[in-house]
Sequence to fold (388 residues):
Amino acid sequence: MLTLALSLAALVCTILARPSLNYLENHFTGEDESNEVRSAAIKRLLEVFGMEDPPAIHGHKQAPQYMLDLYNTVADVDGVTKDPYLLEGNTVRSFFDRRSEQVEFRFNLSTVATTEKILTAELHLFKLRPQAMLAFNRHHFCQQVSVYQLLPTTKNSSAHGRKLLSSRLIPVHSTGWEVFTITQAVRSWMADEGNNLGLSVVVQTLGGGQMDTKLIRFASGRHHHQSKQPMLVLFTDDGRRSATVENAPNDTAATSSLPEAPLSGPPSRSARSLDYSEEEGASTSCQRMPLYVDFEEIGWSGWIVSPRGYNAYHCKGSCPFPLGQNMRPTNHATVQSIINALKLIKGIETPCCVPDKLFSINLLYFDDDENVVLKQYSDMVAGSCGCH
Ligand SMILES: *[C@@H]1O[C@H](CO)[C@@H](O)[C@H](O)[C@H]1NC(C)=O
Ligand SMILES: *[C@@H]1O[C@H](CO)[C@@H](O)[C@H](O)[C@H]1NC(C)=O
Ligand SMILES: *[C@@H]1O[C@H](CO)[C@@H](O)[C@H](O)[C@H]1NC(C)=O
Fold:
């Protein structure tokens, strides 16, 4: 559909192109301009998704399981937000450790915009099974695991300082993900990138003694499977969430015969195969029709993990007098429709068929630095249509 719109725009542009001396030149000018229109349209679409350029992704990359699970929790198959209140903020970013040492971690946060509000930051470490079943004594059932922020050297002391961020007792025999909150450290890194010297993880016995590192081990990026890599997960908000309330709390038009948010139903892949050109003439009254935006057709399937596309829907049809409640008219539209019907004043059109409820969608994608990001975009899907 988008491609169709783009080629239509290109066609109009070609027709409007100023006359040239010969056919060949005209031909090339037309092609240039249609490419121009296309790239301008893609650029504008990228802006809707808050980007300047499409991220460049080299080779096939795997998104972290945590991010895939998170996406499936907040979004349905089509990417439409299941519950707008599930996620705090509208962005979740994941970063892999760039230092790859057993007990020290460093994450490059250069892709986070300075305008993004840091809500929560978590360090995710995968605890491995103890390597050695060394002579256990009862002090070894639990270990104190502490995460420190490494601080820059101060003028008076040459030694690196460190600040305790989070500390917890972890059973020696457990395996799996351990999550530590490190929000304060990330905020200080965002304030001054030079402060980012990384994190240090210290494991101690209950008595505070040195711990055998064979007993409590965390997976590192270099030595263990990719799915167990240390990860920083950042919940942020870019302030782009719209002011309009989704799922308007009081839907008095609930009796409407219009399709009411059938978004939770089976995936609407079929929307794509529907015949868009099915024209019933201008007599069709205002209703919601499918409009599938296919990321593959736009050439974005390389960096968007999910969804492959989504049904944005569009509103189409006339708003003739008299406007029934199923047209979900505003009072203003009703009055305008009456004025139009009575021809009281010249030049007053019938009301327009427009989306009167909009839903957000979620995108799971790779950013410029090949980190996986989950982002919510508001007002992307027409939930219902009305005469306004
Ligand atoms: C962080 O990543 C950016 C972009 O990839 C790079 O330019 C910058 O040098 C990196 N910073 C550090 C400290 O590695
Ligand atoms: C460093 O020295 C300054 C004054 O010379 C003092 O105010 C500050 O508290 C010292 N900082 C530390 C960490 O000792
Ligand atoms: C919604 O509308 C009903 C009547 O249609 C009213 O009783 C109720 O107070 C309204 N609720 C809100 C939140 O506006």
